[in-house]
């Protein structure tokens, strides 16, 4: 949230009717966790147990949650466009899709800055947007604060004690048809790539011609170090 905004909000149930920015329907941190918390503790009514988009539409005011109108989440075509009202789109057909400027966690942050009242983000998003190469409108992390599930607020850095839940790390997978040695080569390549390009302000190009844009096809700016947990195939942030 923007710091000191919505002074009347002292419980998460007071989010009803507010303008929300989601990373996208179906994303873990940007949709599944917050919707679950609001159903359990925030007074969000389940309108359709097979389509929680309708529950969110009924709960929030004009918002942006890309993919709210695609067939997967709107199977019979009767979702309203409330979760697309804050989305912008730069060209016809882009609004409220994954190509929308407000899509993803970076997009949800932009939505919060431009139009929204609350955004559901990863704990790293604000820092990445403030410190990274993305224009953050000259803001600092002190311009934002976390809304805790008990209705209190804390500084952005206090995410360990003020959060809405944990989600699994992203995983990198390959086929089991590859030999153990080849899979080890893949791991070594990924580790080296993160060493070269990880962090908020990595170099844009190496002497080998690898670029930051190549890196972003696989990892986010928040990637610091892949965790080599070979047996469980579970890589950390």
Question: Tags for this entry?
Answer:
D-Maltodextrin-Binding Protein, domain 2; mainly alpha; 4% strand; Ovotransferrin-like; globular; 237 residues; 2 domains; single chain; Transferrin-like_dom; disordered C terminus; 4 strands; 6 helices
Please describe what this structure looks like.
Residues 1-237 form the Transferrin-like domain. It comes from Diaphorina citri (Asian citrus psyllid). One of its GO terms (cellular component) is early endosome. This is Ovotransferrin-like. InterPro entries: Transferrin-like_dom. The structure is a single chain. The protein is mainly alpha-helical and 237 residues long. It folds into two domains: 12-154, 3-Layer(aba) Sandwich (D-Maltodextrin-Binding Protein, domain 2), CATH 3.40.190; 180-232, no CATH class. The chain is built from six helices and four strands. The strands form two sheets. A two-stranded parallel sheet has the order 1-2. The radius of gyration is 19 Å and the shape is globular. The protein starts with 19 loop residues before the first strand and ends in a 21-residue tail after the last helix. Mean pLDDT is 86; it is low at 232-237.
Indicate the topology.
Blueprint lengths: L19 E2 L6 H14 L10 H8 L44 H11 L3 E2 L5 H7 L13 E3 L5 E3 L24 H18 L14 H5 L21
Parallel strand pairs: 1-2
Antiparallel strand pairs: 3-4
Mean pLDDT comes to: 86
Overall structural domain count: 2
How many distinct helices? 6
Distance between the termini: 24 Å
Q: Outline, from the CA principal axes?
A: globular
Let me know the largest β-sheet. 2 strands, parallel
Low-confidence stretches: 232-237
Percent range of helical residues: 25-40%
Strand content: under 5%
What is the topology, as strand order, of the major beta sheet? Answer: 1-2
Radius of gyration, whole Å: 19 Å
Name of the CATH superfamily of the largest domain: Periplasmic binding protein-like II
CATH architecture of the largest domain: 3-Layer(aba) Sandwich
What's the CATH class label of the largest domain? Alpha Beta
Order of helices and strands: EHHHEHEEHH
Helix/strand/pairing category: mainly alpha
CATH topology of the largest domain: D-Maltodextrin-Binding Protein, domain 2
Topology, number of strands: 4
